[in-house]
Structure formats: structure tokens, C-alpha cells
Design a protein that fits this description.
single chain; 419 residues; 21 strands
């Protein structure tokens, strides 16, 4: 028995020889591995990607990964004049919770071209009801204490609609990224806030000077003046060189290319405040706040199940009311619900990935998800919303956070469950 056993020195020799063969050339197959005459040739190795300056300077993804953003809402983008409008992120292909910067959704309400801003020429003015109006350069901001936080942004156009052919069309106007910058409260403390200030107005540098009114309490809580996104500078579509990030609020309030913030003593009606005729700070905060909301991304409309058996149902949940505390999944159109598993620790006002095991029996069914946030708010059905607001079924006033159904046919095809 001992004679058949390789000693340690021999084992190391064989290991080194094998490693050398893998590193410097192909290892000759053993006789039992040699293909028979006329049999199929062994699978060829991967094609090698040759180095080039572009690949070294800024890496590319694999050519086999084809996820792309698409125009949203039936409007071409860019249009005949070269203007870019709403562009939706491919949630159906997402993994984890962070949206790559190049796939982050983008929305505009002003139809303007992207500002091409030299960061050395860009300033942020804070004035109005402050003791010391101040102008901050980009270098000034980067000298101050920074924070890095994970937050989602969502457009009000993100709606559960029967017209959507897939989750990118229905829910692709939300994304989640890691944002870096200075808390707005830090800058306001530098300026000194007067006691009469209750609101602030933020203005960007676009061609049409859109502005948004928000409660001062939000500014002093968690609003971020961001210059970084996913470990690098903001992309131009995301507000380079500087934007506001207003966690949990409708996306239009996260002002891009921000250049001016004014503290005021009353609500100001501005370009961005269409449909938001709010006067009380509490009412405004709740009116602007997103969620709670969830959607199954796999399986979802446009996808095909190859056959019955085991699948993991997975998706995203988020809320402007804080962290997600629970996600439930139904595989029988709401007759029964089971708790999903969090894929990581839920963060406040951030996408949370969930998963749930499912053994599909091959029969027709409907998949649903619903979530509960840290305030105890539960994602509603369309019927619950219609009853609460006394509107027709399918009409959702304001921000839409209703449950999205996916219909699974017996052949494995998945379509939108709304009729």
C-alpha cells in the first residue's frame, strides 16, 4: 500500500509540472482522453482579447453582455433634433443592488442638451435667509468632510402599466448607486441659517432653469451635494460636476448641475413643481416621498422559463420611508404569501435585492411581490388604491407604487399580468 503512495516531494513535482503546462502551453491529454478517430474535436479554448490603449485606459464589458438602456414612454430618444429624453435601465438583467453608471436611468423634463461644464468654472451659491451668503468652488467642496451613501432615484414616470412589455418599460426609471459628496446641512451650517427660513429652492444649470422647492427640514436631514457616483466623478447625464441627491423623494427634486440654493420663508411655485401645490412641510414631504415599492425582475415579462422545476424568484424593493423591513412573494396570484430572503442588509432609501425559492409545477400562474418599509407602510394593490382614492380601477393618482403581476403561461412564457 505504501509503495503506491506518492511522497510529498513527488507530489510537489507533479503539481509544478501541471502548473507549468497550464501556464506556458497545453498539457498533452492522457491516452484515455484522446478523442477516437472520427469523433468530435475537443472544445477549443477561449479567444484571447489583445491589449489596446482603449481597453487599458477605460475598461469595457464583455461583448457577450448586451444589456442596454431604451427610450421610455413611447418617445424616441434622441429625437430628430438630437434631444435626449427619458431612458430606462434594464432591470431584467440586473444583479445585486447597484446600477452601473453607464446603465443608470436618465430623465429630463426640459428637453435640453446636456450641459458641458468645466468643473473649474462651476460654483455653488448658497444665499437667501442665511447669515453669510457663500459661493463654493468644486475644490472648496472636496476639502470638506465627505460621506458615501447608497441611494435609489426614481422618476414619477415609473408606473405599473398594462402597456409595458417588460420590467424595463414598467419600472426601468429607477436606479440605485453609491453617491459621494458633502451633506447639504454641512454647507448650510457654514452659511448660518436664519430662524425665518423654512424652505429651500435648488436650481440647476440647464438651458431651462428648472428649480424645486423642498422643506428645509429635509435639507438638514440627509440631502447630499454629490460629486461622485459609483467610485468616480458623476457622469454628464447624472449632473456632472455637481448634483443634489434627495433620498426618498421623487427624482425630479435631485437637481442636476446644481449651481444655486436659496433659503426662503415660504413655498415657491417653480418649473419642477408641476402638480405639487403643497403648502405644509409635512404634507409636502409625504407627497414627494416614493414607495414602498417592489418588483420581481426574474422571472418577469419577456422572459422564458425552459421548463418546470426549481427557480429562484428575485427582484428589488425600495422605499422613500426608509429601509425595507419585509418582502413577500406569491406564486399563486395572491392566494398565499411567503417571506423572501434579503440578499444583503437593507439600506435606507436604497434598492434591496430579495430572493425566494420556487418549484414551478408547469401550470399557469401569476407571480407577485409586496414589501413593507420601516415605517410599517405596505405596498398596495391597484384595487386598494382605487378604493382609497375612489377612482376607477387602474387609475393611480400621484406616485404609483402598486403591485406588479407577472403572468406565467404553461409553456413558460412570462407576460405582463395587468389586463
Amino acid at each position: 500500500m505504501g509503495s503506491k503512495r506518492l511522497d510529498r516531494r513527488e507530489l510537489l513535482k507533479h503539481g509544478a509540472a501541471l502548473a507549468g503546462g497550464l501556464t506556458f502551453g497545453a498539457v498533452a491529454p492522457a491516452s484515455a482522453q484522446t478523442p477516437a478517430s472520427g469523433g468530435p474535436a475537443p472544445a477549443s479554448g477561449p479567444t484571447m482579447i489583445r491589449g489596446n490603449k482603449e481597453l487599458i485606459a477605460y475598461g469595457d464589458r464583455s461583448r457577450f453582455v448586451t444589456s442596454v438602456r431604451i427610450p421610455h414612454g413611447g418617445r424616441p430618444s434622441p429625437d430628430a433634433f438630437g434631444l435626449i429624453f427619458h431612458v430606462a435601465t434594464p432591470l431584467q438583467d440586473s444583479v445585486g443592488v447597484i446600477t452601473p453608471s453607464s446603465l443608470h436611468y436618465w430623465a429630463t423634463t426640459r428637453g435640453s442638451f446636456l450641459p458641458d461644464i468645466d468643473p473649474q468654472q462651476h460654483n455653488l451659491l448658497i444665499h437667501g435667509l442665511v447669515d453669510r451668503p457663500l459661493t463654493f468652488t468644486m475644490e472648496d467642496l472636496k476639502r470638506l468632510p465627505s460621506v458615501t451613501r447608497l441611494h435609489f432615484i426614481e422618476c414619477a414616470g415609473n408606473r405599473s402599466t398594462a402597456r409595458a412589455k417588460n420590467v424595463q418599460e414598467s419600472h426601468g426609471m429607477t436606479s440605485c448607486a453609491e453617491w459621494t459628496g458633502v451633506l447639504l446641512s454641512t454647507l448650510l451650517k457654514e452659511c448660518g441659517v436664519k430662524g425665518s427660513a423654512n424652505w429651500f429652492v435648488a436650481e440647476g444649470a440647464e438651458e431651462v432653469k428648472g428649480a424645486s422647492s423642498m422643506p428645509l427640514a429635509k435639507a438638514m436631514d440627509d440631502v447630499l451635494v454629490a460629486y461622485g457616483m459609483n467610485g468616480e466623478a458623476l457622469r454628464p447625464q447624472q449632473g456632472f460636476p455637481l448634483r443634489l441627491l434627495v433620498p426618498g423623494f421623487e427624482g425630479i427634486f435631485s437637481t442636476k448641475y446644481v449651481r444655486r440654493i436659496k433659503l426662503v420663508d415660504q413655498y415657491y411655485m417653480n418649473y419642477n413643481d408641476y402638480g405639487h401645490l403643497r403648502q405644509e412641510a409635512t404634507d409636502t414631504a409625504l407627497g414627494y416621498q416614493v414607495g414602498p415599492k417592489s418588483v420581481i425582475t426574474r422571472p418577469s415579462a419577456g422572459q422564458q422559463l425552459p421548463g418546470k422545476g426549481f427557480y429562484e424568484i428575485t427582484g428589488l424593493a425600495w422605499s422613500g420611508g426608509g429601509a425595507i423591513r419585509r418582502v413577500e412573494v406569491s406564486t399563486d396570484d395572491g392566494k398565499h404569501w411567503m417571506d423572501a430572503e434579503f440578499k444583503g442588509t437593507p439600506q435606507r432609501m436604497a434598492h434591496t435585492r430579495f430572493g425566494c425559492p420556487w418549484n414551478w409545477d408547469g401550470k399557469e400562474t401569476v407571480l407577485l411581490s409586496r414589501c413593507t418599509d420601516e415605517l410599517g407602510a405596505v405596498q398596495p394593490t391597484r384595487a386598494q388604491v382605487a378604493k382609497f382614492f375612489n377612482v376607477a380601477l387602474g387609475e393611480v393618482p400621484g406616485l404609483d407604487n402598486t403591485i406588479q403581476p407577472w403572468h406565467v403561461a404553461s409553456d413558460g412564457s412570462v407576460t405582463n399580468g395587468h389586463t
